[in-house]
Records
---
Amino acid sequence: MIKIEGINKSFGKLHILKDINLEIENGKTTAIIGPNGSGKTTLIKIVLGLMESDSGKIFVNEINIKKGVGYKNLIGSMPQIARFPENLRVGELLEMIKDLRSRKNGVDKELFELFKLEQEINKKLGALSGGTRQRVNAALAFLFNPDILILDEPTAGLDPISSSALKDKILKEQRNGKTIVITSHILSDIEELAENIVFILEGKIIYSGTVKALIEEKGKRNLERTIASLMESNGNEHNS
Amino acid sequence: MNTILKIIKYELRDVIRSKWILIYFAFLFMITEGMFQFSGSSSKVLLSMINIVLILIPIITISYGIIYMYSSREFTEMLLAQPINRKTLFTGLYSGLALPLSIAYIVGIGIPFIFHGVEENTQIPILSILLLSGIALTFVFTSLAVLISLSSDDKVKGLGIGIFVWLFMAVVYDGALLFGSYLLSEYPLEKPMVGMTMLNPIDLARVLLMLKFDISALMGYTGAIFKKFFGSPIGMLFSTAMLLLWIIVPYQIAKRIFVRKDF
């Protein structure tokens, strides 16, 4: 379980995250959505320890993340933009991350096989195409069979075949009882994958609950229309 | 410790393949070998190498270090999402930069000397001082490069600051010192000059090398004072300590920035 308590984060004068309180349930898939610049990625980066919050606490499985880096052994993450050392080969990158992590859950190469990455194993990361990078990025997140998966826009930049392979894998891990956090702008993906939804607007949580309850509450046909009406009503509040 | 070694191992693979280290090595090797071919005497080669060490090492190290630090942002960000302590990662990054540069330098200069040998055994300590001060300068400028690149997120600005720092230490500082001593030539300036020299790592290395070559007589009365101070055990100890400070202080500041930085 990931518990987020009173997180604030500013960059200079920009107050990106305003007192975020959130509980991400174990064994469920939670989607974090919101327009560009609403603070989704910043929140994820804080959970991953890439950024430090100005105030507030985060607990991963009851352990305060400031107590040490061991909690990252539980998490497999897929950043929005895949950044790799250019001169290493794909195989060496795998070896390196294997070297650096404790592998108590063993190694899960399913995505590597689905994405046919074995044939790219001797290529340098700098020479890979954008889509292949993204596939490596996704496969890495699942590689150590982590209990928690954090996926920042996982299907962006993937071709339809890879994208549906990835979604199948996410659904499979759901059934295995993994805790999954996912951000996406593709609402149909979220409807398909997520049970819970968190809507962030301008650094504040506007809605947190199940996808089903949200759609019912707003009385709309699908998630897209629901989110649109949610954004409209909040936009109106800001204007008035 | 184990993790540091692992990081260094993979960073080395990345750095060595970037070819710049190999070009650096080949350049030093060809210069040293070329000098042996032209002059034929190891004492002349040693003397010429002073200038190579004092000018080339700082500029290559600081510019390569800064460029590498910016381009290894990806590497850093990826590793930060893994269970690695930030301090450990910093030590790994620093060593992965300073070690290959030092090795390229030692091997590039060392191989020709092993081939041709030295004429007299008295040149061996000179050669060792040359190698040691080169390594010290490599570490000093790696520290500065890491500090500069972490202080600014703008690559062009970082590189600009780096080149300015090099220009200041290698050229402007000495010019200003010379101008100052000319303006104040009526006063006894020898001791302040010793102090001012200690504040610039390139000057420190230069003085250490000059004294070993016994050419301080060329510097006149000031040279005598320098020889008296830097030639004494206390002076040697003091200047070595200053060089170490030049490595450690920027290193520690950079480490503090790194531990708190948002990626």
---
Amino acid sequence: MTNTIIWTIAIITVLGVLLALVLFLVAKKFRVEEDPRIDEVEKVMPGANCGGCGFAGCRAFAEAAVKAPNLDDNYCPVGGNDVMAKVAAILGYEVKAKAPQVAVVRCNGTCEARPRLNEYDGFASCAVKAALYSGDTGCSYGCLGCGDCVAACSFGALSMDPATGLPVVDEEKCTACGACAKACPKRIIELRPKGPRGMREYVSCVNRDKGPVAKRACANACIGCGLCAKTCTHEAIVMEGNIAYIDPAKCKLCRECEAVCPTGAIHGVNFPKPLDKDAVKARIAERKKKAAEAAKEAAHE
Amino acid sequence: MSKRSFAIGGVHPHDNKIARDCRIEALPLPPTVYLSVAQHIGAPSVPVVAPGDKVKVGQVIAEPGGFVSAYIHSSVSGTVKSVGPRADLAGRPVTHIEIAVEGDEWLEGIDTTDTLVTEIPADNKAIIEKVRQAGVVGLGGATFPTHVKLSPPPGSKCERVIINGCECEPYLTSDFRVLLEKGEQVVVGAAILSQVMGNVPCTIAIEENKPEAIAHIREVIAKLGFGCVDVMELKMRYPQGSEKQLIDAVMHRQVGSGGLPISVGAVVQNVGTALAVYDAVQKNKPLVDNVITVTGECFPKQANLQVRVGTPFTYIADCLGGVPADAAKAISGGPMMGKAIANLEASTVKGTSALLFLSEKQTRRAPETACIRCGKCADACPMGLEPFLLQKLSRSQDVEALEANAAQDCIECGCCLFSCPAHIPLLDIIRTGKGLALGAIRARAAAAKAAAEAAKK
């Protein structure tokens, strides 16, 4: 009995040593030469493997970053400037700092504003719903409310608000990886710069229908009246196919557009004070008056 | 001889043809019609009328917007009110031409009598041109412009024209009534198609649940003496009316993935299309009306109606007593492949075959449970696909695997969903995967084309 046990242990040990030797030799012979910087870069990555950079995961990003001649096309939105600075230090490249971004839902067609015209009883997925028809409200551009964006978010930054039927972005958790924007079949979600202290102005509507049609479908729709574009003194607002778009690079956050918007389609978030519409409107009127007087005088001279 | 059918898959839904004994009646003219410019597969037509124009029945109001496109004719006489976007049955804005109806004045040259014209003109090119001018599209559901189908690419040869009278969708009876009441015209239309395709034999395929139609068409053929046309009785099985399945059933030939029927020598046309071809060639009558079945257990009155193209669905329902209170869903087409109507204000198009009302109980979906890998969906799939796998790949959006597993070949017949004991909405999910696969294939084709052009330069 003891003999058997000793023999078993001896054979297994010898086998183990021999096989380990074989493995060692094979590993030495067929060793894959890999840039050690790939491992280093991967270590400083956030490790979310979200795909927000356009690569399959953090490792793939690291490989691409090491191979690339510069870092212009490789940017990790999750890690942001801090991580990219570390990556740049490892690789000896320079990296341009990018303004941190956040996902913005450009639809404010709440349940009250957008009456339901029909009932959808199919598979609860925006992609499936969008393939079938325009949606259960009169607006064929707005949020379908099945939460594909919520499912796509790997950071738990999105949730559906049952009161409005629209997704809500948690700015703290959002890393601007862009997964929600890709998942949305209506292309409602846009990545916009976070803005100073999170303050930003945006048009929360993508309805391209003409004013009356859009208004009939949704009380909060952008009707393409162009008032905001006329009011803006920074040329930050462009009208494209019956909707206004605020260029975040040009916007100076004066909130005049928000004050003049007749439907409330323009949203300003994270401002310290609530918007005093009348005061802003009075300011605009005053400015226009002065401009008119100046023009008169100029004509006179 | 045993009756034929297609080789793999298929299901047997109850046929529910409760409107089968209703004779075709003409629907009174609606006060206004709305004609969509996208009534066919291919490029939308381009409107050639402006608000205020007076039009007659049969007058061209929109011209083809490309090779695969079709003429659209006014289906009524009256005044053009507007040309602009209007929600279609899915609620999507599509350009519609709105015409207020005044009287019923037809364009000169259109023969509106019932006299049967059996003499077929000899010039095939002229026939195809007439079909094109009449805006005839496939009325089996896909609405593919018929003149394109009748002009096969050089090098391909048609060996048989198949007239599709299967009507395998439950509830639908419009093709059946057309076969019974306008059998003569359909047979002449079939003979025209067979002559155009090079004097090939023509088979009118009818499922066995329509024995009256089979007997009637046999009689008509004997009476009119068209030797090239025959009738084939097929077993009852859904989706036999699908082009590839029908070719398999009739000719025992299989159309390959991405292939066209002409690649195996077949041209399939619907019964309604054969009638439209007859009207166009023999009567100079463009496609301005079609037969629509209005049915459903919860609908008080069943009917087969001759309806002018562009009639609003609400008007059709109102003429028959209004939308029933217990109707939960309105469907344009049959219950298997028809489209739910999200907007009842929308109007009919050339390809509309039915207006079906289903009750709450009939449309209720059972809760989805886990796949038990029974393989019923794979058994039912007439294209030989594996729906359980495709739905998984669709959920994970694995485009390469979707393409490798032929998601693009899905004909969206719904057999998988119909047969699934776990009530998984297979087709709904696979449809998104099919879109991804087709998108990838198209992108590749476009890239190859661009590369070829760049190489030329």
---
Amino acid sequence: MATPIKTPGRVAAPGQGGVGDSPLRPDGTLKVAGEFAYSSDLWMDGMLWGATLRSPHPRARIVSIDIGPALATAGVHAVLTHEDVPGNKMFGLDETEDQPVLAIGEVRHQGEPIALVAADHPEIARRAMEKIAIEWEVLEPITDPRAVVADPERLKVQERGGITRHQPVRVGDVDAARAQAEVVVSGEYEVGIQDQAFLGPESGLAVPTEDGGLDMYVSTQWIHNDLMQIAPCLGLAEEQIHMTMAGVGGAFGGREDLSMQIHAGMLALHTGKPVKMSYNRYESFFGHVHRHPAQMRYEYGATKDGKLVYADVEIILDGGAYTSSTQNVTGNAASLGVGPYEIPNIKIDAWGVFTNNPPCGAMRGFGAVQACFAYESMMDKLAAACGITPVQARQRNAVSQGSKLATGQVITAPAPLAEMLARAEAMPLPPAADTTDIRNLPGGASQTTHGEGVVRGVGYGVGIKNICFSEGFDDYSTARVRLEVIGGEATALVHTAAAEVGQGLVTLKAQIARTELGIQRVTIAPADNTIDSAGSSSASRQSYMTGGAVKTASEAVRAELLAMARRKLGHRMDDRGADDLSVVGGKVVSRSAGVLASVEEVLGEDVIEETRKYHHRPTTGMDPVTGQGDSHTQLALCVHRAVVDVDVDLGLVKVVEMAAVQDVGKILNRLSLEGQIHGGSAQGLGLAVMEEIVVTGGLVRNPSFTDYLIPTILDMPPMRLDILENPDPDAPYGLRGAGEPPTLSSTPAVVAAIRDATGKALTRVPVRPEHIIA
Amino acid sequence: MDFLRPTTWEDALAAKAGQPDALPVQGGTDVMVEINFDLHRPAALLDLNPVRELAEWDVVDGRLRVGAGVPYVRLIEELGDRLPGLAQASRTVGSPQIRNRGTVGGNLGAASPAGDSHPPLIAGDAEIEVASAARGVRMIPATEFYTGVKRNALEPDELIRAFWTDPAPGPQYFSKIGTRNAMVIAVCSFAIALHPGRRRVGTGVGSAAPTPRRATAAEDFLSAELDWEGRGPLSISAAKEFGELVKRAASPIDDVRGTADYRRHALSVMARRTLTWAWNDYRDGAKAGKEAS
């Protein structure tokens, strides 16, 4: 079978850059020029188009399905239901396997896949799909997560029940502390459903192979985890499926769960033809999980000076009908539920529950975002109650290196939170808005004010995020590095299965190979499953894990190169038996004898190839009763200061400036890093003031970019960044994962600034104009 | 689906007469989106882009006649001085790409209650020139053009040729609520136009009723209340009453973009503010005039 056109090829990374430089992305020009092949651009002659029939109801029984008229449509090659699933009929993340490949007798959320059609043309497929006749028995959806916590046995959405996970955290004696607290503050908070809003819709191509297997081109965050779920459902051995990463148009967690992969595979196996599936924007809103909405109740006690003495916390996360990542999201919400503050007595109950609301799972920040909005709102309340500033309230309780988290885990790496807060506070404030240009004002070009009703506010937010997978999971990564002379120049080929989702890993892998091998030319092989797992492009972990794997594999190649140099050049160890060779600027250099030879001369016709697996330090689970455990690999902090102008008469907001202080351990690529901080801050701003999937009775009311609003350039302000480099001794180059922390802290900072301007309580995000003028 | 591409206005009218269910398309920023989402499957598309005269504007006996195919970007650049209210509204339409393609003609054809160009057309007393092969030209006042949600006064064989309006005889403002600062559909919107010669105030209320509409009681109240001759200051109570009357002219709904209560409230604020800006401009204009003379 031929290779489809428009698949990612090998990309050569240009430029000088090693670790610490900011070389341009190898895929950057293609993306800017509109020439990069995303998964929706995949094409193969003779391919069929797949379409998915989805449930219009959040909860209903399927009395009957008639596929006859659809199948009889000219140009239709297959119409499949759950009866046609060749292998396991259920799949799911984390071995939960509670989600049907296609609905079996019942649907549990709006948009649940029911049947598949393959046809010559996408429009034929879509029309045939509409001819599938279903007789429904519509049921009352279960949509109140708090009711599920109260009565999980009665309000069971599926066999696993009403509660996905309940994770308590118990430290000290909250009741005793409550009696002694001089100041008590409490609040109830709510976070709406945020969407990842990636621009590249779910899409991919499945191509049958001559031996009965499949070649799959998919855009995902983790090839091997996809494969683990796809193969059993298709009744194939993993070895029968060759997975290649297609161009990914953003992910943000929304591609951790499968979307069209098994479906396209079923249609391809059934028809014997290549099958492409590509969702449109409307379908995409139903084609992936979202960020869990949360309902939270917090009570804090403190001394009158603002030193926290206890926290009593309840967090309810609505995961929708299937498990997805809810267990781990709930774990994060529990372990990070009070944030980066030292509190001697803690009682946290975090619940993940099943409902018939839209399915929720992974999104940038992963359970830490929701809690962060609540605990940061509480820190502002504490400050107000004690008559101290928001920065003082945070500094008086801030963790530092050696502090214990709520789980009892000691922060072993630097964590200079009090200093970071001081730095954020010390940054100069932006000048008053220039009202001669309405684009500087709330409402922007819509001209709702020329300055009337505009009040400025300033707010702070702090977030703490776990980096890498937690709770005992060994999310290793694998890298193969091959060094040889190609066209007279030493060239490294770096191969991993890691997903480039836009974050810049392809750039970084080349930087690391250049630094470790001392050469210029590096080629990045397409990600596929001919190499072992790289783990997920999630949890801000790829610089750490795949970066670590490329580093160790490159080090092994370098060691072999130097050994080869000694063999071929007859160079000896020095008298102490130490190796005085290194590779610098493409030359093998001896400390004592200077340049010995070029890398090309040493290699000649030889090829050096090494594969290494990289593991982070082991973590433990959380105790099911007390939540205690060393559950996290690495912890990362970000501090935001937001400055807003609010039109208090109309409830419209202009974020004037965001300043961020983030400790990244080591700056590997400043350009990419700043992009991550800007982007994470923008996503947090979106949650603060506009982004929400609005749901009524289990039905989504705004599945489009017309009504699901994400920030534009007129909403996202300029940023001041202060990036610290306090290295983590456990991590490669001392780095600290950076993609998620700013997503946490920007939301509460923006809301705190709006509160500062308006005096309103604002206990729910996104903040709507109605809330501000209420 | 047939695709009709007449190159002259006469051929376009003939095509529409021959196939009245053909959907006219200009910039395509609305029509093509709906087709992509399969919300409509018209029997035919009538592409008016090749009809070059639709993309022209002209001054006829002191009035502006603006072709239905003039894109927003040209309204802003070429007519911003003479139609400031419409230009302000045009600036709020979508993104630069949308403003390069989208047209007032298309906005009128779609007749969405949220269309940004409607309130300034109503406030400016615009008339819509429509035509058919059988009956020729007829002029429809903007206030009578919108007949329901996404419905207008066109007969099936008619096409929109142009809109007519006077160059602004006085200050004009447009204001729109959206929950982000650009590229947003109106939660509600408001336009005001002062007609000092007639001592009238024009208004247009958008996205707060099944159709764009004028706030007649507010206009009547204010036209009588303002000190046109002496150009005296605007009383706070008059501005407030005007806002109240604009608010009462609306009959908004709760939807995913905002609540009815918020829309009413926002309309009263926008009415008050735009009136203040317009009246201050009018007063400043008098001062500037005196200084110049």
---
Amino acid sequence: MNKYFINIEGVETPIEADIGQNEALFTQDGKSEFVYKFITDDLLVLRLNHRNYLMKAEHVHDSDLKNTEFILEHDSKAYRVICKNELELLTEKFAASRGDVKIKNELISPMPGAIVKINVKEGDDVKKGQVLIVLEAMKMENELKAAADCKVQKVLVEEKTPVDKNQVLIKFEV
Amino acid sequence: MFKKILIANRGEIAVRIINTAREMGIKTVAVYSDFDRYSMYAKLADEAYHIGESPAAKSYLLADRILEVAKKSGAEAIHPGYGFLSERGFFAKMCDDSGIKFIGPSHTAIEDLGSKTKAKQLAVRNNVPVVAGTEHAIKDLEEAKSVALKIGFPIMIKASAGGGGKGMRVVRSVEELESSLRMAQNEARASFGDDSVFIEKYVDSPRHIEFQILVDEHGNAVHLGERECSMQRRHQKIIEETPSSIMDDDLRHRMGECAKTIALAAGYSNAGTVEFMVDKDKNFYFLEVNTRLQVEHPITEMRTGLDLVKEQLKIASGEKLTLKQEDIKFNGAAIECRICAEDPDNNFLPSTGKLTYIGRNLGNGMREDTGIEQGNEISIYYDSMIAKLISYAPDRKLAAEKMERALKNYTVVGVKTNISFLLNLLKCPEYLEGNYNTQFVEKVFLPRFEEAKPEIDRDTQKALAIASVLFKNKNEKTHDGKSPKKKDKKGGWIRRKELYY
């Protein structure tokens, strides 16, 4: 059994538990037994106290998430879950004390497609939710929006040009 | 009847057509792009021919190449499905010229009804109500001004060759008119290569209700009732149902008769759909005719007991309609949901990838139309639809319950889907009461949907916690390079050894 610290989005108190192969010891409410089977790498049947849970994980192989952040879907609802072991928690505390915080400062194309429209130029201040680029893919026009308030440092693409998945489209000033 | 037909389409609609053809003892010929070499429909057809590269412009839109295959394979007729070449008059004409039957209306009917101004003129001449406005393209700003002032703001500027919301602009005052007119013309030119636009009165928050018609080549027509298609986002339909909750026998009769009138006046034949806007006071206005089979045709099939593809094939082979209007009986209620690979939490961005797992348990009262199998890929080349689920029950409430259950039992791994969005939509009070219009999803539902946070009971919290640890550990095992990817031992439940005692 190893100790884990788990934060579920929307749940105030973090969960602390020792979790082993078929047994979990929750610091708050004691022992639970469970069985499980992976149907695919991303799909898990978990039977906890005789209740069935079909759990689907999204982006489990996304290296950005460093295997600590999980988007789990159960009963057609998605939950963001942060799960860290003791070592990861320590490393993070150490990094935070050095002020080593990384902010995403790029807009990246989520899929291959073609740029239809660019709504911003260098030096623009943009607001969270503002449409930055319209990308056409799969017969649809898709709006790419700003994730936070920020300032445009550089626009790296032009209208009517094709882009690849994960290509950097805009750089922001941090 | 034909002995062999070619299907100039792909995906679920190709599968749908192959199935009916097979029931009727008709052989089928599929055409496929690089991407679709082993897609479900290409395997299911009796014969399959490669026609080009994955982008539709290099395969499914190549009329010449498709006709060549039709001749080579000995197909007597071509079913165009929906999308691609289905509403292109020139393709119907090319089929005619090659002596191959196009399963659909004549090319002249497609062209006349495909132009919104021509279709509207036809409606006016035949006393079918239309929204007030111009019946011809606007010449200049002066004319636009005088028309707008006559019918009163708000008005809508629309591209004559338009579709999918492009080239459409709502104008609320005379000051906005000049710039809106210019923008609509620019959009129309960019999208359709034709900058002619017309003006009509803007109907606020209308419903979108369409009528299915069948017309034979001997001048006989029936309508098969309505489909309520007001659940839309950016002009894309999300949930369709029949009957519409605002429909009564009298309104159905009047709208149905108008639908038939338009079709007969245009010299239309085969299956078609006549679209109307319906305002709050149940006034209806003719919008346009879709000269093909619609995505949402199955709900009409469920409620009338007819097979529309079979009717299409019979009409195309020259048979007379054996059905009279009084033979058409409407029973029960049907709902269709489109399961799409898209991310509702991220502005409905299409989600591409391999479908590593599809789990479903449809059960009583459900139909699924799909062209996708486990292991297939959702690509950037075509639309993002995974499947259409259709529920059918004695009444609307029961049909919605069946749909909810089937959606909950539908599991897709590998891409994001709109399933949770559909479930939320089905459960919202406006849907349950049947009280919604074309503005509902974008103006009312989505803002609310984005705010909603799920409540999580303690047991589910624990399950999420354990699941996250299990995924974490599995990831470490499979991806740290030390232990190769392997299947769970014995393939059964993983249990503690002690539990076997």
